[in-house]
Amino acid sequence: MKITKLRTVTVDLPLEKPMITAIHETRSVGCVLVYLDTDEGITGENYVFTLDKNRLAVFEHMIISLSHHVVGRDPHYVERMWDSMWKDINPIGHQGISISAISALDTACWDLIGKAAGQPLYRLFGAYRDSVKAYASSGLWLSQSVEELIDEANQFLSQGFRSMKIRLGKPQIEEDLERVAALREAVGEDIELLADGNQCFTPKQAIRLGRQLEQYNIGWFEEPVAAYDHVGHAKVVAALDTPIASGETEYTRYGMRAILEADAADILMPDLQRIGGLTEFRRAASLAAAFNKPVSTHIFTEQSLSIAGSAPNCISVEHVSWFSPLYREQMEIIDGMINLPNRPGIGFSFNDDMVDRYRIR
To answer: Does domain 122-339 correspond to CATH entry 3.40.50.2000?
Structure first.
């Protein structure tokens, strides 16, 4: 099998509600969809995204600039293609948009490998489980009132979730505590509550808030300080009993190694786009396992299920609904769990009608 052509399409997906956190405010997500056609009539699919659709052209051009590493090649040699792209981007650096472009092509190659074998990727990687815990992450934003938080939490419960994440970062710590307390009372003690600081606190502020959050049985406190401040994160890790989660903004296994060596997180959260695709994601999960650390996948729910189903130390996936309109198939939450798809490859395929609807003309 040979890859004969790369095709890209850009789309802009409106969000049901504006996403407002301590560091983000957006009403849509822009995506570059990647299609790798082959001489056997099989097409591998994937996407990368940005919160600002105006930056999509940069992502698309970077992907196209690396296409010669995959077009004309057998996708089964995906590890060799990854290494050749890694060497190619050396002059511009091994972080940022160049890694996102590698991820776009690498994961599409893996989709081809699974489809050619007629097997879901998590089984090709070596299956460990057939379902995985998912936490609701498409809401509970900083901009919502307490009443809106409770209403949305009840919606998540009705959808089958048993775990959900609230964003922190109000001007006064007392406001964050009031919101968490109200949400805990509304959902009860049996529902897992996670908290995301979105990098807005100093280490001292994070420790002060974290100690007071412990009474609400928080599953983890995510990115309490600036992601690049590994020393600050390590101080918070040492001071709190609540697990600290981080890593979504780190690039490749080398970024993960820096967190691990600094003891800056209890739970690693690799992001498929920043980590460098499924090839590098598997390496990062194994690296975390060597440090006895669990991982929880960041966004990219559909693609990340292949990691969740094969990595023994993957404890959960982040469920976001932003990208579900792109796909023919939909995920189903049953008692807080997602059943891993038995369809070949990633297990999800682009819906041509919806792609055309949201295409950027």
So the answer is: no
